[in-house]
Amino acid sequence: MQDVNSGYSPNIVAFCCNWCSYAGADLAGSSRLSYPANVKIIRVPCSCRVNPMFVLKAFQRGADGVILCGCHPGDCHYVTGNYYTRRRMALLFSFLDYLGIERERTRVEWVSAAEGARFSAVMNDFVKTVASLGENKRLTDLRCKEGSDNA
Amino acid sequence: MQRIGVFICWCGSNIAATVDVERVSEVIRSEPGVVFSANYQYMCSENGQQLVKNAIKEYNLTAVVIGSCSPRMHEATFRKAAEEAGLNPYMVEIANIREHCSWIHKDREEATEKALVLVRTAIAKVNLDAPLQAGESPVTKRALVIGGGIAGIQAALDIAEAGFEVDIVEKNPTIGGRMAQLDKTFPTLDCSACILTPKMVDCAQNEKIDILSYSEVEEVKGFVGNFSVKIRRKARYVDETKCTGCKVCMEKCPSKKGLNEFNMGLNNRTAIYIPFAQAIPNVAVIDPEQCIKLKTGKCGICQKFCGVGAIDYTMKDEFIERKYGAIVVATGFRPLKPDKFNEYGYADNKDVITSLELERLMNAAGPTDGVLLRPSDGTHPKVITFIQCVGSRDTSGCGKPYCSKICCMYTAKHAMLIREKYPDTEVHVFYIDVRTPGKNYDEFYRRAVEQYGVDYIKGMVGKVYNQNGKLMVQGSNLIDNEQVVIPSDLVVLATAIEPEPSVRKVATLLTASIDTNNFLTESHAKLRPVESPTAGVYLAGVCQGPKDIPETVSQASACAAKVIGLLVKDKLKTNPCIAHPDESMCNGCSQCANVCAYGAITYVDKEFRLGGGKTEVRRVASVNPAVCQGCGACTVTCPSGAMDLSGFSSGQIMSEVEAICKM
Ligand SMILES: Cc1cc2nc3c(=O)[nH]c(=O)nc-3n(C[C@H](O)[C@H](O)[C@H](O)COP(=O)(O)OP(=O)(O)OC[C@H]3O[C@@H](n4cnc5c(N)ncnc54)[C@H](O)[C@@H]3O)c2cc1C
Ligand code: SF4
Ligand code: SF4
């Protein structure tokens, strides 16, 4: 997805747990349920593997949105992992909001292995939301942006 | 620096039609560390794998990246290929450029760009991969089957046949499940008991099988090959080893008001009872809710009359702990209670019954000795109306959204059996669709219509009401496009079936996943239909989805084959992608053990050298590699940054983030 006027196209990092959401993304794929190419998925065993540092790193490196997907509460492959995620990210996201990373740029969603349609819908919606906010400039390390040597 | 080989798969045209595979392969060639890059039509094919093996040897590759379908599909395939070429299998990473790219994007330019990013991300990860060694864990050569219906019985018999010990844990006083309640069974109309009870006896006589009836699973620890299960043996108040099943106690027991569950509450039973004549074990049980002795302390008649001294009113629940290598879940189903559906008047009219109640009314061992009589007044019903899909295919929220699959067939069966036995009876069936796929199934249904003259009416029923002792069934006939009212003597509801509710507890104990309808989910709907996503747990029968007896038995035997395949192994490879603390950074704070759902983390005292000849003893975390499941919860919790996860290390994920954001 790209803004026709500005040419701006958000870059989105999606952390997906191996058992539910990554499989849900696979199902979205095999069902040909499209969502914008802006979304790039990193596979983690459980959503609880996502350290707040990874999210901060993404924003520092110029990501415009970060989304974590895990199994539905009660269905975590590792029993309780997604509960940790829920609590950790609630805290982190409000902290990020305080720093000026809008709340809409961060999200936790539960997507099961059977919910390919939901995966695609969530991603479509998230990309649209982030695109409407424009580029994330707040936390971005300017050295990481295009044209710099550190890129 | 790794020496990386990158292989881009076309997947026929699945990837190549949308992603410019040649270009990806070309551009990636100049990435730092990449010493070989190729693309091929089918990487997973024999030739594709050979390409990887040859390149590993020829270019001395230390790491491999495959741009292909999902790692859930072929990660294992490529790891094995790498291993065969002498590379550590964990030095392989997959970039998912099919499910996550070519299949969901249309624009070739965009998809190619994204594929490049995904491959670069995999390169970033593989750069930090370290060779991992899968550990080994021993296999306990004994299986547990939870639920003793036909599914559990079949699975247990097959496993025992192969020479392994197996325990059946059944929550009811007898095994047999729902099939024991049925009269005759489609499509062949053989008597259910005649085909089931010999199997039940086989279970009892097989020395490899231990039937733990009237028992429930309370706690499950461990993992595939090494489960440790705590089982509650509910107090029966009758010594199973002494009781001979003579039934004297049942004759003498003065408390006769208990609802007979086996007969779907259509008649009563004594407080001490044997559920049915062919029960296995054929041992009495006391219902503490009904027993006068247990409630008031007075009575004790059964004890007086029991010739072998089997009655023991002081019996308490007991717990036993056993070890298993594999677990089969076969907890079955229950029919949905139709009282929520006011339109059918089930709660208000005794002569509106469910299909399972009808099975009991037609069964020779049932409350009416097999004579079909109305529950209200004991007369012969002359007009019987069946209503199909009660609570099935119901998206209103009141019922179940799925098709219960067996009702079309058993309703045709009921209609036919009634017409056969009582030819003067008029039989109507309201249906939405008749769904009878299966060998000889459609023929079976057509026989009901053509040979037995059953009146099938396509349409839904709006209301059942009582008018002068007749049950008026008001519905629509969609074919003739008219409203019809059928005055009936008996109305039979083909109610939806739903998973036995206790399956939720079982699923939680086993960390097996369950869908929104409480059916257990299989590991892969098509390719791994009898395995749960939790390793070592298998699914048989209706607990996995609605099915009839032939399907249940096939699935149970398939489960048994899987279990046998597991139990013949002496050792299992364990997943090496597990947590490990950096002992020099760990301060023994215990936070990691608090979040570990598996109790994999303990603490040990270790001696550290401080320099200058001094040493210090510190408490540090230690992860049990056989117990850790590799979720990573501890890694994020650790305030010292000491805990990391092999295969998904913090450094790796950070570098993946960087690779994605580098644009
Ligand atoms: C009215 C009716 C008529 C039918 N007619 C036919 C027919 O003619 N032909 C045909 O092929 N099929 C028929 N069926 C379908 C048939 O009954 C099922 O396919 C079959 O019973 C499924 O067997 P199962 O072992 O999966 O489940 P079940 O028979 O339900 O057995 C499950 C067992 O597990 C036990 N259990 C449950 N939870 C636990 C727990 N937590 N711990 C321990 N034990 C537990 C239960 O007590 C039970 O003994 C009919 C079904 C109905 C309702
Ligand atoms: S990775 Fe998960 S299972 Fe392993 S020790 Fe850490 S918390 Fe426990
Ligand atoms: S949380 Fe970290 S520091 Fe604390 S005991 Fe576990 S590994 Fe050691």
Helix and strand arrangement:
The complex is a heterodimer of chains A (151) and B (663).
Chain A: E1 12-17, H1 21-30, E2 39-44, H2 52-60, E3 65-70, H3 81-99, E4 106-110, H4 116-133
Parallel strand pairs in A: 1-2, 1-3, 3-4
Helix pairs in contact in A: 1-4
Chain B: E1 4-9, H1 21-28, E2 34-40, H2 46-58, E3 63-68, H3 71-84, E4 92-96, H4 98-102, H5 108-127, E5 135-138, E6 142-146, H6 150-161, E7 165-169, E8 184-185, E9 190-191, H7 192-205, E10 209-212, E11 215-223, E12 226-233, H8 248-252, E13 258-259, E14 268-269, E15 272-273, E16 285-286, H9 292-296, H10 301-305, E17 318-324, E18 326-329, E19 333-335, E20 352-354, H11 355-362, E21 383-390, H12 407-421, E22 426-431, H13 441-450, E23 455-458, E24 461-467, E25 470-477, E26 482-488, E27 490-495, E28 497-499, H14 503-510, E29 537-539, H15 549-567, E30 571-574, E31 579-581, H16 591-595, E32 601-611, E33 614-623, H17 633-637, E34 643-645, H18 650-661
Parallel strand pairs in B: 1-2, 1-3, 3-4, 6-7, 6-18, 7-10, 18-29, 20-27, 21-22, 21-27, 22-23
Antiparallel strand pairs in B: 5-30, 8-9, 11-12, 12-17, 13-14, 15-16, 19-28, 24-25, 25-26, 31-34, 32-33
The structure holds flavin-adenine dinucleotide and iron/sulfur cluster (2 copies).
Residues 581, 586-592, 621, 637-638, 640, 642-643 of chain B line the site of one iron/sulfur cluster.
